[in-house]
Amino acid sequence: MKRNLFFSKDINKTLVKYNSDINIVGSIPDYHLIIKALPILNRDADELYKILVKENEFNLRTEKSRKRFMNALSSAFVHEEREINDFTSRVMESDEIDQDSKIIFLFWLFSINNRLFKEVNKHVFFKYYYMGRAELPAADVQAFLKDFISTKPELKSQWSEETVKTIASKYLTLLKKMNLLEGSRKKSFCFVTISDELIACLIHLYTLLGQQNSNFLEHEFASWMFISKESILERFKRLGKRDWIKMHYTGDSLKVESNFNNKNIIDGIFRRS
């Protein structure tokens, strides 16, 4: 069954240069380590360095791998806006939020922070997902990356064909670890259900990024809800009735923003649910 495609509008964030963080994040053995480490990093990088690198409380084999993990955390999941990092820490530390929801939140955060991950998601993962494709072939990810890199001289001169192949493989592994794909040799799309509570968290991120005056129906965040365009308005109406969001719909434009601040959103959504 064909799902509806979305237009895309860039997030107003100064993204760093393209990098291969997909390889490092895809190599992390257990994403619960990210959930545990990220609030510590946001609070005190020196404390995490002591726990992670020196004392090896996360049981990573070599000091080099521990340092790579810490650097990847900072690059992939720490934002330039402190309020976003504060909100992330609250989500990761909350006992009210299940682990699968936290991992979907990490998918959103990595999409915001990493240019290459965002591009592959937009042009391959979500394109195929909303077309109703059953599988996401590694060859198609590689083909997109090759074409994309050929238009970026700074990448073309640095990344070999083997590097591209590795990024494509780690990309698929990453999505499998995030419960968005399944299978070993062939990767199939999982059926993804985003709860009302998690959608409210997405809209809070959207608001912290200053996107509330954009038309949500044409924004890239719309695709991140994993539902058809026609279903978005109904879901937002439901959230609006619970006073979780504020919305304004004119027939072809939908503006939406969070009704919470960082301090009251977890209690306001999850403990009243």
From TrEMBL:
Pfam families: BrxA. Gene3D superfamilies: uncharacterized protein from magnetospirillum magneticum domain. It comes from the Bacteria. InterPro entries: BrxA (IPR014948), BrxA_sf (IPR023137). This is DUF1819 family protein. It comes from Profundicola chukchiensis.
